[in-house]
Amino acid sequence: MDMTQAVILTIITAATPLLLAALGELIVERAGVLNLGLEGMMATGAACGFAAATLSDSAGLGVCAAMLAAMLLASLFGFVTLTLGANQVASGLALTIVGLGLSGLIGAGFVGTSRTAVPGLSIEGLSDLPGFGKIVFGQDPFVYAALVLTLLSIVFLRWTRAGLMLRSVGENQASAHAIGLPVLRIRFRAVLFGGACAGLAGAYLSLVYTPFWSPGMTAGRGWISLALVVFASWFPLRLLFGAILFGGATVLQLHAQAASLGLPSQLLSALPYLATLLALVLMSLGRRGGSAAPGSLGQSFVPDR
Questions:
Q1: 38 in Cβ contact with 25 (< 8 Å)
Q2: Which of 12, 41, 155, 303 could join 70 via S-S bond, C-beta 3.0 to 4.6 A?
Q3: Helix or strand run (H / E) with residue 128
Q4: What is the value of pTM for the model shown?
């Protein structure tokens, strides 16, 4: 039971940053914008969050700094793609490069510095229950925030007027504009929300997952989160299960390395990414009737003048 609980806790820990980043990207893409800069925003959020938390000795300020830094990068992306009409794919790739470089610059003075990880919840009489106590009542605040954000995303997209407007903009931008919806404003707000979620995921990496800063600590999680949105067919609940699946693949490679199976460590480290590619291929083969992506995804919108 202790081993099972430890494995489940590790899977949840590995899945949380993927879920946080992917939730933000899902909202962005449902609005019709493709932001490939998740990796850069996560890295910048991780660096800024760790730097602010270390200097102020406050994890809360670190989280705020991480979200703000990623939102600033997202606003730059939004200005270039939405206001100036630049290509979203090229701009997203450029944002990743800028974010990774900026994170290395900000975090250069904090390499080798460590701090205490954000503690998990502790409820007397509940967190110590055998089997599921720590799993349900002993998680850190980021895990509960990810679950709440998943629930709120479902409610927002399915049952609110603002969610209907966002989906309309993503499905057919011309029709949405024709009925008077502010396409650019809705998309810009979605992009900012995606940046905030990416920053939160980055803060989780440097303040909880590995409570120290090192260059490249995102390790491709931004790209996995992008693939996760496609895997989930742009639905938040499927995103939750997909994050657990990919988190399990990450944990599997760690246990495989510890078991000394005789396989090259490089191959085992590639398991999560191979699982991502396999999942996307299976989704593509099994999907009938074309892609489930929003109809206007990745298309620039220039309103009539």
A1: yes
A2: 41
A3: none
A4: 0.92
